[in-house]
Task: inverse folding
């Protein structure tokens, strides 16, 4: 049994109600639900939330909300893995234990059904514990600078000041869209960023964290540009 879990807490601080705020003519969460349903990967698509309004919007968009997330998993400090582990255990107790569980973020309007299918295939055809979306950094991280308390700058890796960009190893980061995982990996609390995980590569132009108002504005620009392409 393959389960999609979309975590959507109600207490967003920096962008209030961001999980259901209108984006591209739909509640933000609708894009993730639609991608999950269109992918054909899942036997069940559920939303884990502590918020009645989010639950209602999720149901209207075609997802299930079979339980309300408990308060101890709904504060600002709870990470993703405990939330997905809770949903995984709930599904097992409901009588149909999942083998593969995909965490799909509610604020991932650029995720595509084909991306989810690629993640499923990557995990299914390997012995990995997880397969998750990643993308490349646009600039060599070895040449990053930091701001000093004195208002100056310093390199994190000054030994690479004279190294050509093309001679530096390419670096990648979490794309913040989805994380396929084996049920036992979630419930054991296994870390995602580790050698037991496989990458699912996404192009940079379809990756945007949405944590601040500036992020939201940039995501809207990207969305409009994609619609016109």
Result:
């Amino acid at each position: 049994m393959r389960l999609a879990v979309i975590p959507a807490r109600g207490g967003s601080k920096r962008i209030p109600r961001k999980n259901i705020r209108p984006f591209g003519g739909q509640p933000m969460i609708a894009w993730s639900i639609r991608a999950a349903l269109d992918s054909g990967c899942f036997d069940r698509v559920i939303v884990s939330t502590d918020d009645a309004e989010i639950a209602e919007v999720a149901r209207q968009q075609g997802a299930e909300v079979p339980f309300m997330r408990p308060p101890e998993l709904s504060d600002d400090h709870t990470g993703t893995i405990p939330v997905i582990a809770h949903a995984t255990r709930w599904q097992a107790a409901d009588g149909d234990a999942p083998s593969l569980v995909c965490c799909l973020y509610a604020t991932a309007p650029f995720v595509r059904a084909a991306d989810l299918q690629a993640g499923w295939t990557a995990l299914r055809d390997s012995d990995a514990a997880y397969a998750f979306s990643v993308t490349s950094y646009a600039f060599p991280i070895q040449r990053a600078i930091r701001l000093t308390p004195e208002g100056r700058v310093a390199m994190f890796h000054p030994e690479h000041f004279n190294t050509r960009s093309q001679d530096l190893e390419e670096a990648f980061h979490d794309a913040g869209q989805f994380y396929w995982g084996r049920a036992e990996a979630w419930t054991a609390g296994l870390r995602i960023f580790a050698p037991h995980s496989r990458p699912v590569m996404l192009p940079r132009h379809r990756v945007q964290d949405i944590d601040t108002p500036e992020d939201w504005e940039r995501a809207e620009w990207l969305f409009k540009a994609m619609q016109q392409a």
Q: What stands out?
A: Residues 20 and 143 are 38 Å apart (CA to CA). The mean pLDDT is 96. The first strand starts at residue 2 and ends at 7. The longest helix spans residues 213-228.
